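PT: before anyone asks, these are the final sequences, not the draft ones from last week. 710 residues across everything. Please model them as a single complex and drop the result in this thread when it's through.
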Amino acid sequence: MYNYSEVDQRLVDERVQQFRGQVDRRLAGEIAEDEFKPLRLQNGLYLQLHAYMLRVAVPYGTLSSLQMRKLAHIARRYDRGFGHFTTRQNIQYNWIKLEDAPDILAELASVQMHAFQTSGNCIRNITADHYAAASADEVDDARVWSEIVRQWSTLHPEFSFLPRKFKIAVSGSPADRAAVEVHDIGLKLIRNAAGEVGFTVLVGGGLGRTPIIGKVVSEFVTADKLLGYLEAILRVYNEAGRRDNIYKARIKILVQEMGIETFRAAVDAEWERSRDHAPVATPEFIAEIRNRFTDPDFETNLDDGDLLETLRYSPAFAAWFQGNVAEHRQKGYAIVNISLKPIGGIPGDATAEQIDGVADLADRHGHGEIRVTHTQNLVLPHVRRRDLPKLWRALDMLGLATDNVGRATDIIACPGLDYCSLANARSIPVAQRLSERLAVLDKEFDLGPLEIKVSGCINACGHHHVGHIGLLGVDKNGEEFYQITLGGSDAPGSTIGTILGPAFSSARVDEAVETIARTYLELRQPNESFLAAWRRLGATPFKERLYATA
Amino acid sequence: MPLLKGGRPVNDSWQRVADGDQLPEGGIIVSLERWQSERETLLARGQPLGVALPNTADVAPLQSDLVHFGVIVLHLPKFTDGRAYSQARRLRDQLGFAGELRVTGQILPDQIFFLQRVGFDAFETDDPRVVARWAETQAPFSAVYQPAADGRRAILSPSG
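LR: through. Structure below.
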């Protein structure tokens, strides 16, 4: 866990004071809604269909049990007893009163949390690999660099009124669990031939109306140059990014219109001009940040207890172990994924009791640490393997032992028309129906790894473009329809899904997805995943079966 | 329009001269186009000169001209349009402009902190809230992470 410095704490406290004043002035009518909007947005407060929504930052998806309990408390006291974990590793509360918002921010500040820049046309919460500092395959700890970028981007005076929002993701591992290729800036930690840590910098990736895979703007940026280089990219974007059309305002459009070569030259020139005034993370500063992450005192020589025996006698436990538990770099430990996708449930939702329960289990079995994933699940990154059977039973009591991580029923869905003022169609009920339908199929035939992602509008918060199966809600004369894309992926070598054909009505869409799944089952080769089969077969067999009777 | 410096209303000693209008006596501010087309005439006056830039102007080519300007005016057509922030930082940090850096347009009290950080020291606004709230806009945050053009010691300053 990162422990705030005195300055970090002071800034979040001062932010609460500032926002309290702004809310008071708004409630007194001194500032108009259009002037208040950017102020509240930069504190994570949206006005949605039914109420204010507060988006709380979970920087790089890392939470302590203490922070987790605070999130449960806020859900209980200020919301309706639940919270919603998002694809940006944040948590959202959907039923917030404006006058409560400053108090909620004060509660958050008391546990080193905030809602800085979780919305607005500024640099948003930094996202990162949810297995950071736990997986064996990482080059360096993505959290350290995410925190450094967080500090640099917080209250940045020059980049708080950008053409559009700006998302940065950091991956510490070649496996890229942070989907860095579909972010405005993606940072991949690598080592050069001399063994120095640096970054491959991607720019201009993103989903939304115009899905684009990010392009490499620099193969290797050294650690000391990182912040100055980011600042150069942002300055080029701030000055040259389009402001005439909200749909063309993201950096991906600028990079596309300039071409990556020209864009790179502009950034390099800007870096040269600004390097004497650039922000720098000095080696001492990097070391200080690293030291502020207190990692668990791992026990050595741990045995597995009754793990192997439980695996043998309990098929349910074995299935959960197989699906949700990942290898830890420390012998005797494991990484545990907690699915927030119960069959037929609302993706990413957790009740206050579940949030508290996970905090307790993290304390008991996982060194008090929790992660939020961009797939709307939770992770206990440091669990003793010998504790796994006990943990599993406790999770089951909380309704959190669904063994579907990475499978067909682990569906990502945006809040959709049930909450969101931008949506064209509902996402949640479709995800719920698909979950129930596919659970049956998966149990019977084993669909293998299969990522389904549902967005309620073209803004693509449900990341449908990079779903193996993606659903996009569209409005057709007041009726909800869903366009299906196949073959998307946000794993390294990302691909944007292919639109299959005409959209399906809400009544027919889950049947259509089942048809796709059955087509895969019929045509797959031994051990061939859905994505691999799609890449081999192409669209034709899926199209034929889907539209044969249409 | 009222001008604020250091939080206090001050007399504006500069006159804005529209393109095509006769040049009056005293310090004047002209548009970038007028500066570019009437450069010699404007310099021959031997009186204080300033220039107003649209927020789309690239400031880098002005480097050798900066010695002639006592004031540069940048513009926020809407408070959500942040281009002038980058122009200001370029002028201060990269081009070393040390004269008055003035901002016009839609300025909200809650932006004063950021505007000062990127190098503005004069605020042309008729919004009474900017004066009324000046004191509290001054130090909402007692520390800063990033170095900017205000010379404030920052956590991420190159010298630490």
